[in-house]
Each structure stands twice: as structure tokens, then as C-alpha cells.
Amino acid sequence: MAESGPAVRRLRLETRDVETGHDLLRQLYSDHTPRLSGNVEDYRFRYLANDLDSFGIDRMDHSLLVHADLEPYHLLLAVIMRHGRMTVSSGGATEQVGTGDLLLMAPHRPISYVLDNMDVLPVRLDRADTCAVAEDLTGVEATRVRFAMSRPLGPAQVRYWKRAVAHVTRNVLAHDELARQPLIRAEAFRLLASALITTFPNNALGALGERAAPGTFTATPAVLRRAVEFIDANAHRDIGLAEVARAARIGPRGLQHLFRRHRDQTPLEYLRRVRLEGAHGDLVLAVPGDGDTVAAIAARWGFAHAGRFAVEYRRVYGRSPGQTLRS
């Protein structure tokens, strides 16, 4: 890019015309045909794009309910849902994304999605360049690095990703005089690429082992992954710290240290969160009148005190478990 021109390519589009809005999305991502539900006269679309070499950080506000099938694209796309809902299906997997969630979309695969009055912050990274960063970090050949549609590894990684995106947005993209500098552009991309590699599951993470990753935490070691997998598969059973440590093949004290270091929580805090998610799923799927109660579902997932369960549930999901059961 010429030194005399603006370093950041900025685009702003606001329209009430469906084709105009989705023509931009076709240019940025890939071909698709939107199918809208609702009154087209209520359609509103706003897109703010900021591009800098191998990455872009955008903002999209899309009204109404829209269904579309998206052709494969060659980006790595991580989205932060600021408001609204999105259902994404790819390769036999489906993810429901709500306000505050973070999702890595599936690269190189067709995607079916449903958007419902969505305000989202997409971050676009060049896939080949990101895989090259993964090779530098892990030694895994760039052409062998694989990503799939996935959620973050944990809350610490979510915080790190959001901090990295905020830093690049505020301190690089907002200042052309800095963004013109080749080293600053390169370091901004490397920060985002490293954050993505250590935030979302991929086949290069195992090679990182205990090596320090960029930012405030290190990549997930195999011992910790075994513990997390055991908890995820057995949260509905009567398990505790000893059982998890035994499955991970480490002592309880060592396991506590790994969870604190890599996930900013204890193993039992993570177990409790997984159980809360299990109870939430049962509440959502329960059919009113079939006999399921909040207390019964809470007890099924190890919450003996229904009142404390309700308080924790409301703190995480923003509504009472009874409201979810009745909806």
C-alpha cells in the first residue's frame, strides 16, 4: 500500500434495500441468496468495514429473520454476537449463537444460517497467513493446520480475544498514521492470528504444549484437555476433583494449578458451569405438562438447592429457570 494513501480501507453502507445489503456480503464473503421472513419494508442493513492487508474488523446490523446458504469462502471468520440470534449449520454440526457469544465459522465448507435481528462484530483473517503464524508458533506445517466451526476453549480465551480485537480496533485501525507502518500492520495481524489460534480448537494446539502463547495465557496442554473432555462427558454423573484428576492422569493439586493458569477457574467451577449448561438444555427441551419441574431438572444435574440454582441460572442466562421451562 502506498505510503501517501490511507492505510485503512473503510467502507460504510446503510440501506433498506435487501439486494444492496447482500451484494456487499457477497463481495466480502461468498455467493448466497437471502430468504427473508417478515415485512421487507422493515428491512434495515448497516455495515461498517475496516480492512488492513490480511484482516478486517467490521460491524454488521441486520434486521428481520433471514435464511441463506453460503458458498465456501477462504477466510477465517470469528463473530462476536452483540445482540440477536444466529443459527449456523455446517458439516453436520449446528451452533446456536446468542447475545454475548463468540463463534468461529467453518472455513472451506458450505454454511446454512438463520439470522434473527442480529448486531454482530465479525473479524476476518486471511486463512493462509493465519496458518503461517500457527506454523511459526507450533512447528506444524501451515498447509496441515485445520480449523472447524467451534466455540472458544474457555472464558479466559474469550476475554483475551475480545481484548485483542479491542486493542487493534482502538490503537491501530483508528489511527492511519500508525496503521501505515509495515511493522505495526504486521504485528496487529500477528496478534489477532495468535489470539484466534489459542482461542479456538485446532490441530496445531497440541504442538504448543506448555510453550508460552501470545497474551496472558498459554495454550491448552494435553492433561488439561483430558480433564475438560472427561468433565464434558461425565458432568451428569457423581464426579469430583479426584475422579477428574485420575482421568487426566495428574494429581489434584496439579490439576487445580492448570485450570487456574489456563482457564482462570477451578476444575469444580468448570464442572458446575457444564452442569448448569446441561440443566439449561433440559429446561429448553422440556415440554410443559410432562411433569418436569425446575427442582427436578436442577437435582438431575447436581444442584441440590433450587434457590441457589435459580440465582446462578439467572446470573448466566438473564432469566429465571421457570421462565425458560414455560417458554
Spatial separation of the terminal alpha carbons: 54 Å
Q: How would a crystallographer describe the biggest sheet? A: 9 strands, antiparallel
Structural class of the secondary elements? alpha+beta
CATH fold name of the largest domain: Jelly Rolls
Low-confidence stretches: 1-5, 209-219
Counted by DSSP, the helix tally is 13
The whole-angstrom Rg is 22 Å
Helix content: 40-55%
Domain unit count: 2
CATH secondary-structure class of the largest domain: Mainly Beta
Strand content: 15-25%
CATH homologous superfamily descriptor of the largest domain = Jelly Rolls
CATH architecture of the largest domain: Sandwich
Please outline what is shown here.
With 327 residues, this protein is α+β, with helices and mostly antiparallel strands. 44% of the residues lie in helices and 22% in strands.
List keywords for this structure.
327 residues, alpha+beta, Jelly Rolls, Arc Repressor Mutant, subunit A, nine-stranded antiparallel β-sheet, 13 helices
Describe the structure.
This protein has 327 residues and is of the alpha+beta class. It is built from 13 helices and 9 strands. The chain has 2 domains: 7-202, Jelly Rolls, CATH 2.60.120; 271-326, Arc Repressor Mutant, subunit A (Orthogonal Bundle). Strands 1, 2, 3, 4, 5, 6, 7, 8 and 9 form a 9-stranded antiparallel sheet that branches. α2 packs across α5, α7 (222-234) runs parallel beside α10 and α10 packs across α11. The N and C termini lie far apart (54 Å). Residues 1-5 and 209-219 have low confidence and may be disordered.
